[in-house]
Automatic annotation (TrEMBL):
InterPro entries: NLR-like, P-loop_NTPase, TPR-like_helical_dom_sf. This is Tetratricopeptide repeat protein. It comes from Streptomyces castrisilvae.
Amino acid sequence: MLGTVAERAGAVAPEWVGHPWVVWTVFGALGVLSAGLATASRWLDGAAENDGGPATSARTGSLHPPHVVLQRVRGRDREIARLRALLRKPDGRFAVLCAVGGMGKTTLAAALAEYARRDGYTVFWIRLRGPESLTDGFIQAAVGCGMPRTAISGAQSVGGNLPDAVWRHFSRTRKWLLVVDNADEAEQISPDGEGVADYRGWIRPYGRGLLLVTSRDTSSATWGHAAELIRLEPLPAAAGGKVLLDSAPDGGTPVEAQALSSRLGGLPLALQAAGRYVTGSTSRHRDFAAYQNALQEELTALVGADNPRPTDPNVARSTVRRTWEVSLDQLDREGVPLARPLLRQLSLFAEAPVPLAFITPRLLTTAVGRPVGQAALDQALTGLERYGLLGVPAEEPSVPGAGPRAGSSVTLHPLVREITALALTTDETDRLHRYEQAMTDALRSEVTDLRIAGAAGWTTARLLVPHLPLLLDHPALVPSEEARADLNTLADVLGDAGSYALQLGLRQTVLAHCAEFLGDQHPDTFTARNHFANSLHSLGRYEQSEGIHRQNLADRIRALGPEHPDSLTSRSNVGYVLQLRGQFAEAASLHSMVLADRTRLLGADHFLTLISRDNLAKSFDQLGDHTAATTLHTQNIAECTRVLGPDHPLTFTSRDNLAATVNHQGDPARAAELHRTVFADRSRAFGPDHPHTLTSGNNLATALHRMGEHAQAAELLEQTLAGRVRILGTDHPDSLDTRSQLAVCRSETGRRQQRR
């Protein structure tokens, strides 16, 4: 082959080659030109160094950024604005774009590079593949910014400090952007024995241009005080839909694109994979709707599980299923081997914040089959959060009664959770049983703890709600009857906390499970239906609750008989809802029958009998027979105190109801005294935000208002209203009642002030 080339070159040689005097003349001219270019180069180096500006006229430096179409960078306007502001005025800072893998850090950095190029900046791009690539990239950037190679050689000599020399030059040079892409491993970008945040390696904040680093490491401790951390979050549905339409314009409607974006969690890498697939000539799913439907059965295939080089880190970064393994491998190298099993374990929980309360050493000990200490677990949690694989929400989901609780839970991106769980179930089936056992053990243990924790456990109880139904999916590990009992226990705790909407969801889950597996006429189904109806009336949905209770009463009488304890419970609950709906006569009739039957069948001291006596006394009070109500309430208080104790909730209820009856009899001063003691006792026993405590506060305010103490009543009603809105919500009947009473109090206070 070489011979052939030589023959062809000789065949076309020009005629002047055969004249020696011509050849020597040409060579002489070339020598003069070469010397002139060398001189000019040295002059330009010196001029550039003296001037403080880039020596090259090229607008892209020695290493080129990926191509990006600015019009197709979706949903990152705020981040781009922050970066462009830093580019114009670094002020001793550098930027770090950080997020979990697949969030589009490189794309956003490339967009800034394009903006910088258009604005006349010299752009340099270092694709980090080790310490050598970082050093080489900085040298090329420094040369591109006019630093003489002789200065670089001098700094590289024995005793010299090349990073110091380069950054002295950058501190004198304007209008440059240097991107260090994929700086995920701190040891690759920091000097031996020092951290990045010491700013004595290549990463420093001292240039007159902007240094931009992209990394999975989201820890401010890694980057130091001068780093402007810009954390990327998933794209909103609308922006993600536009990403899909950009790559697959014929893939479907904007609504379908947004739906698929939501399904993929707004992860840019997954959106790009979906767009490529939909437009592929051999793809089986050629539109967004078909692709989304197929994800249910083909998730791992559609997001790139079968890449021919899955262990290549550069390939893994661009493959949705494998991209997070890059971070887990790095944590392994950093000596955090529990990060991978912890992520696997957390992926089995529901798609919701996971309470830290049950991420315990015991959880991981069961999963990995060896003892795990708290320090190692904390290190794994920190590592996963550092690389963006776990989130720590500043505020938990907004539910009645749930305020900001930073750090009480962790979150996983939906796609991280789903794909990690799939990897566990497909790649590690032999370990799956241990992970599932660990999860169910943790859930059940937490329910046991919450049952005795009281108000201190309400925060965790709310967070536990979406996860606990997972017990029903593992009958081999948790018998269904025990799983339903755990769900009912948590629902009871939520009732104490006033979280009735969450309670209703659990009751509905138990009812649906009973109906499916036991049938509509099973006693356990009747019990589940009774609990469900009670949650409805707690939410103020009285009519719906009454209908379900009446149907349940008929079913229980038919299946169990009219005197069965469960039938009596249903009759009592129908009467209770009738009281709430103002149908006092029918309610009193039902309560009278239930009290007689329970006294005869269960005894006068039975807990259910005490409840029936209190219900009947309240019905008498509502019918205007205050004397009979007072007699029954007084008797019930004595029996409750003797049988249950002075601090039992039913004892407090009977005392509060007696105080209300005294108020209705026209003795508001004595009623206020009674309400005040119950209010204090409930506050002590249950806390100020317990629904029963709020009821006592409302009742005390009512008595104060009737005494003419309108200002004092209004102040107490304001506190009660704030608590009820926080716990029950603005539209709950109790909140509406308190708001109405407060308006009356304020109006009366205003009239009295005018009369003065």
